[in-house]
Specification:
about 400 residues, alpha/beta, Chorismate Mutase Domain, subunit A, D-Maltodextrin-Binding Protein, domain 2, 4 domains, 6-stranded mixed sheet, 13 helices, about 45% helix, phenylalanine biosynthesis, isomerase
């Protein structure tokens, strides 16, 4: 490359950096305007999302983008992310209004593992919209997390509850039977497993892999192809990453996220090694007191119930929900300790506990079950991307 070409490249990069700064300023200005929208909706009790308007907005932006030479899928991807950010920030604002007593600039949260674990990443992602500072409490087990919250040592606990690849995390469901804590939030965290190493090496040199049990299960297809490798189980992904960094050995690796690994100066030897390309974990947030969910926000309520050993007892409960028009989005069963062959059922429904129809359903369920308890009502955090008519993308 000649000196003139290098100078020209530096000038181009300076222009790009300037444009990036201008874009960030505009993004911040747009976000502040969406919060003004939330303030307006707070008084009018209007839903946060207007998906018809969102779709019309995307179609218009795609058309305008094409006139500027921009690809329709590129415009769609960018503005779906912007819309999701807008919705989540409006929800966070409205929740603050609905729960003024729990607004805190600093929160303390317990999670599994240490810095870099998926629970750590989920905690920071959840509170990035809700608190200025996070006091971190890494724990060695799910039971420790609950104990930290129950004792008042921390404000919140972050618990993984299910994964799209490996399914439900039964230990957490079992612990929820015996706690007085309430579920006050949820978040879905992308799980992007990589094979991480502390030093430059290649895959053929790896003899030992460290990881938490869940990542091993979720990456079983990749591991089955690697031949003779020793598996070392760790209490958390963070512990596994710290171990590999400490060893500085070209024959060892860890399964974890590239983002988390960077906190331990690890780099990705192999990326996207999970069995499923779309791999997500759902986390729940627990606290000592329940929260109120603003009427404008889509809500989810989690209940547990025991029906006893009666034919059709569970079906009878589900019919109550059906007749009330309440959508069930999760059903999980777990054995009741000390009562052989009896099950405790965990049910997630898309409804606000304050709604009359939900209160009526709880009363009816109370009359036909041996035990029922509301574990919590909380905002639905997962934002489905705004759909775009196929014609808008191809025309």
């Amino acid at each position: 490359m000649s000196i003139n070409e290098e100078l020209d490249l530096n000038v181009i990069r300076e222009h790009i950096s300037k444009l990036d700064q201008e874009l960030l300023t505009l993004f911040a200005k747009r976000r502040s305007l969406t919060l003004n929208v939330a303030k307006s909706k707070a008084h009018q009790v209007r839903p946060v999302r207007d998906q018809q308007r969102e779709q019309e907005l995307l179609v218009r932006l795609i058309k305008q983008g094409k006139e500027l030479g921009l690809d329709a899928h590129y415009v769609t991807s960018v503005f779906q992310t912007i819309i999701e950010d807008s919705v989540l920030n409006q929800q966070a604002y409205l929740q603050t209004l609905a729960n003024p007593n729990i607004e805190m600039p600093t929160v303390s949260v317990a999670f599994l593992g240490a810095k870099g674990s998926y629970s750590y990443l989920a905690s920071h992602r959840y509170f990035s919209r809700r608190a200025e500072h996070i006091i971190e409490y890494g724990c060695q087990s799910f039971a420790d997390i609950l104990q930290q919250v129950e004792s008042g040592h921390v404000d919140y606990g972050m618990l993984p509850i299910e994964n799209t690849s490996s399914g439900s995390i039964n230990e957490v469901y079992d612990l929820l039977q015996h706690t007085n804590l309430s579920i006050v939030g949820e978040i879905t965290q992308p799980i992007e497993h990589c094979l991480l190493t502390a030093v430059n090496t290649n895959l053929s040199q790896i003899k030992t892999i460290y990881a938490h049990g869940q990542p091993f299960t979720q990456c079983s297809n990749f591991l089955d192809k690697q031949g003779d490798m020793r598996i070392e189980y760790c209490e958390s992904t963070a512990e596994a990453m710290a171990k590999v960094y400490e060893l500085q050995d070209p024959t060892v690796a860890v399964i974890g996220s590239e983002e988390g690994g960077s906190l331990y100066q690890l780099h990705a030897l192999e990326k996207s090694i999970a069995n499923q390309t779309e791999n997500h974990s759902r986390f729940i947030l627990v606290a000592r007191k329940p929260v109120d969910v603003a009427e404008q926000i889509p809500a989810k309520t989690t209940i547990i119930l025991a029906t006893g050993q009666k034919p059709g007892a569970l079906v009878e409960c589900l019919v109550v929900l059906k007749n009330k028009g309440i959508n069930m989005c999760k059903l999980e069963s777990r054995p009741i300790q000390g009562r052989p062959w009896e099950e405790m059922f965990y049910i997630d429904v898309e409804a606000n506990l304050k709604q009359i129809v939900m209160q009526e359903a709880i009363r009816e369920l109370n009359g036909i079950t041996n035990f029922i308890k509301v574990l919590g009502c909380y905002p639905i955090e997962h934002i489905n991307p705004t759909s775009v008519p196929s014609g808008a993308l191809s025309s």
